[in-house]
Amino acid sequence: MHYLLFVFSLLCCSVIVKTVIVRTEHGSISGTEFKTSQGKLVNAFLGIPYAKPPVNELRFKEPQLIDNWTGVRSGQNFSSKCIQFIYYADDGNNIEGDEDCLYLNIFTPSASSDSKLEVVFYIHGGAYMFGSSDSFTPYFILDNLDIVFVTFNYRLGPFGFLSTEDEVVPGNNGMKDQVLALKWVRKNIKRFGGDKNKITIAGHSAGGSSVHLHYLSPLSKRLFHQGISVSGSALCPWVLAENSRAKSQLLADSVGCPTDNSNSLVDCLRSKPAKSLLLKTEELFMPWHFNPFSPFGPVVEKNSSEAFLDKDPYELLKEGNIKDAPWLTSMTTEEGLYPASTFLKNNKLMKELDENWNKIAPHLLDYNNTVAKELQDEISDKIKKFYFGNKNISTAQTAELVRMLSDRLFAADIEKAARLHASVTSSPVYFYSFSYRGTYSAGNFFCNCNDNWGASHGDDLLYLLTTGYGSYSIDTEEDKEMVDTMVNIWISFIQSGFPTASPEAVWIPVAPDAEEDGNLNFLQISSSKDIKPSSSLDLGNRKFWDHLHLGELRKGDEKRKHADEL
Question: How many beta carbons lie within 10 A of that of residue 399, not counting itself?
């Protein structure tokens, strides 16, 4: 109970009222009724299993539905995080979590099948490599709207996304965890007061790209009502993992496993300690300061009758093979503060980046596996010239560095996804750009500093959810007003599919003809008092990055010619 009280202390000193029991299809779960600081009664059911523990022979296999249990299971503590590497650890203890981690949490004002409340199914971010459900609690939203809010864990890194590119391990087990959790929610959510036909899936970063992938997947299109992708799309360069079989073989070889046969390779990897595999992942696939930050992630599956993703997301979008439902997507103006803020204050790393630019850039900007080796220097030189001119890379060029990372890793492809998505669906696509820098910033958490570099990746979440980005409180009037603004956006979209930021700001959807060169309509959120419709031909230097063909460039004169057009 101490841990639960700690969690609810994050919810502004909530008061525990009583224990509540709900019967699910698999067994009974006891939650806790608590009163928020605003006097709202909310029930929390934590650590509910939705799949069998993916351990031993189930490691690297698709998730299996949980067995029924007898008696009343305690739902008063969060489960373990999925095992992951802690890149910001400074005490040498850089592994946390457990393989037995497939659990979900439900927050609801009404543990009753008589209610039919809207449901939010929230997918945490973390580059498909880290993060957990216990980092996000829906205090601000629940205090303003009666909804059912679900968070959950899914497998990460090689445990969730290893692929041998054949029928042995097709891949996407972490995404299939998400699908199974969503199916569990649809079957059981009425018992917690929710309506299975009113499920809004939402997520940030890798969670945002996951939401977009669910619009494309044959396994999940019919399992939700609409979606919210915060700072992530299916087209971001770090989403799809490349060379997955080669990575599996390299990982196997590093721990003494055979590599010539997929069955033998995987059987041997199942016998190895999870911590050893995770440490090898960082050593082998993240060569510069944990970059590229997503070496394992979703893949286009081969030889799988139950593929989560059977074609490249770009192909599926071009074909219009997507769920036709409202979609809200977004970006912050300084997205690139992740990962920039993790090394901006480190003079040694900044010097390394400048002196070894051509070696580091393909990993930092995620084209080490998509551009032929003999062409990488050429591409890296073009990028450096475009953003830095003839200047050296240093803290004096912080704005340029953050802009480059923002454009490449987030903005250009979030914008491209919104344009393309809007062109092939009859449902509206809404887009906002968030530039408000409040008292605190997620960027400060990543750098352990107080610098004001603008609106970081993750900053809009500070006004929607209680997050794991360090200790903070919403105590200034301006920040409180931003909470009202962001909560109103989510609430209006959840209820109607049409987001509203303020009565004065008219939010124009992305136009269906904006796919190529038209203006992209979006809402600019600069403060709670400065919200206005805007439009842009190119938010993230999209044309520059498109002409580099970083996802297509291979050996050959024709591809080289395209790169030389710049």
Answer: 12
- State the pLDDT at residue 92: 59
pLDDT of residue 17: 66
510: DSSP letter: P
**pLDDT confidence of residue 467:** 66
DSSP readout, 431-491?
EEEE----S--HHHHHHTS----SSBTTTGGGGTSB-SSSS----SHHHHHHHHHHHHHHH
SS3 (DSSP) at 359: helix
Helices (H), 234-336: 244-254, 262-270, 274-285, 313-319
The two three-digit tokens of residue 54, written as one number: 């993916």
CB-CB neighbours of 69 under 10 Å: 13
Give residue 447's pLDDT. Answer: 85
Low-confidence spans in the chain with pLDDT less than 70: 1-17, 37, 88-92, 467-473, 516, 552-566
Say if CB 314 and CB 235 are below 8 A apart: yes
Residues identified as active-site: 205, 335, 457
Q: How remote is the C-alpha of 440 from its chain's centroid?
A: 21
Q: Which of 42, 49, 45, 4 is nearest to 22 (CA)?
A: 45
CB crowding 188-201: b at 16 or more within 10 Å, else e: bbbbbbbbbebbbb
**pLDDT of amino acid 135:** 87
pLDDT at 516: 67
The whole-angstrom separation of Cα 393 and Cα 531 is: 34
Nearest to 293 by CA among 230, 358, 186, 209: 209
- For 518, other C-beta atoms within 10 Å of its C-beta total 15
Contact of 335 with 411, CB cutoff 8 Å:
yes
The position carrying tokens 């032929």 is 372
